[in-house]
Amino acid sequence: MLKDAVQCALKNIEHLIEKTKFWDIHRNQPLNEGQIKVLNKIFDSELVGGVDV
């Protein structure tokens, strides 16, 4: 049970690190509010193959 919780926490941390790396690389890109919202939605929902907005 504790092992599962730790693995889940590590997965969440890894996801957050990947998202942060993406935004660090693209911080100077001219993105509008809608584009930022869609990109965050993709990261936060871990969608594969499309976006349902």
Q: Which percent range describes the beta-strand content?
A: under 5%
Instruction: Tell me the quaternary state.
Output: single chain
Number of strands: 0
- Radius of gyration, in angstroms, nearest whole number: 14 Å
H-E string: HH
Helix/strand/pairing class, anyone?
mainly alpha
Distance between the termini: 35 Å
Average pLDDT for all residues: 86
| Main sheet makeup | none
Q: Any idea how many domains?
A: 1
Q: Number of helical segments?
A: 2
Poorly predicted runs of 5 or more residues: none
Helix coverage percent: 55-70%
What would the principal axes of the Cα set say about the shape? elongated
Task: Summarize the structure in words.
The chain has 53 residues and is mainly α. It has one domain (2-45). Helices cover 70% and strands 0% of the residues. The chain has two helices and no strands. The relative contact order is 0.11.
Comma- or semicolon-separated keywords:
single chain, 53 residues, mainly alpha, 2 helices, 0% strand, elongated
Set down the secondary structure blueprint:
Layout: H1 2-25, H2 33-45
Brief account:
This protein is mainly alpha-helical and 53 residues long. The chain is built from 2 helices and no strands.
